[in-house]
Amino acid sequence: LGGGGLSGGPPVPTPVAVEYSPPSMALDEAVLRGSAWLSLLAWAASEWLKNSSSAERELRARVLFGAGALALLVHSGLAFALRYGWSHALAASDTARETEALFGRSTGLEIFANYAFLLAWGAELAWAWGSLPRYLARPRLLRDASRALFLVMFGSGATVFAEGGWRQLGAAGVLAAVAGWYRGDGTPRHV
Question: At what angle do helices 88-103 and 140-160 cross, to 10 degrees?
Answer without folding.
Answer: 80
